[in-house]
Amino acid sequence: MDGKAEVAAAAEALRAGGLVLMPTETVYGLAADAGNARAVAAVYEAKGRPSFNPLIAHVSDLAMARRIVRFDARAEALAARFWPGPLTLVLPVADDEAVCDLARAGLDSVAVRAPAHPLAQALIARFGGPVVAPSANRSGRPSPTTFADAVEETGPATLAALDGGPCKIGLESTVVALLDAPRLLRPGSVTRAEIEAVIGPLADAEDDAKRSPGRLARHYAPNAPVRLEVTEPRPGEAWLAFGPGGSGPWNLSPSGDLREAAANLFAYLRGADRTSPSGIAVAPIPHEGLGEAINDRLKRAAGFVG
Ligand code: AMP
Ligand code: MG
Asked: Are 145 and 267 in contact (CB under 8 A)?
């Protein structure tokens, strides 16, 4: 089968209410028809995800987004600058059937994003409507950034699976709520500074579990305990190094490049975890720019965020 036939088959699977492994530039998603409550329920079930945690609706373009949410000037400006790409906007719902109640966890807002990966775009365009696509991991586990990891996590629950190779970015999208004052609900590879350059200052939502119910403790956790900001690993610990001189197989970026570290983060957490170490020790990672999102995911892996 060539890529086109696979996309057509995957769109057919979505139409039938089935789940599909969908590659995106951030992480692999477990996709379903956003308007089909039974399909959406199957996503929550396959992930073991609590149903109070709403899902992101993925669209092929701005026109499809406008059918489901109401854009204001700030949303227009951010979409013009960052779509398609790794930025999710939380906006007031316009059509409460296009993204069903269950996918929104009953909220009157929808999180929406247009992914940049060509296979995701082709699938959503071919399907012709929004698809929910949370990360394809079982709830509480690190997000899959390779096809093999995605298949291992939730492959058995799917009717179709698209192999898009390793995810270029490797971290989930940045989430910004534009319901009142703009808030950064989840840091990601579109940085705080890049967003503030377009719409001005962002409020934080670190403790705002009601606005972004997904911000739970140990959200991105491997099995082994994780220690952060470690300069010297203990015997038996796997070592996630960063920068020149960091020894071992799991150096996130020997040259100290944050983009490379983000792309490797979840795959290395999984890889290190598979060796059944007594723990995973992670080197200090700078907090600036993309480092904010990397450190956010690491804090969750270590169970520090409540
Ligand atoms: P995930 O599907 O795991 O990538 O997570 C999606 C993130 O977007 C979670 O943190 C959700 O809590 C957040 N989210 C989705 N929909 C909404 C919404 N309507 N309002 C606020 N946050 C949302
Ligand atoms: Mg997730």
From this structure: yes
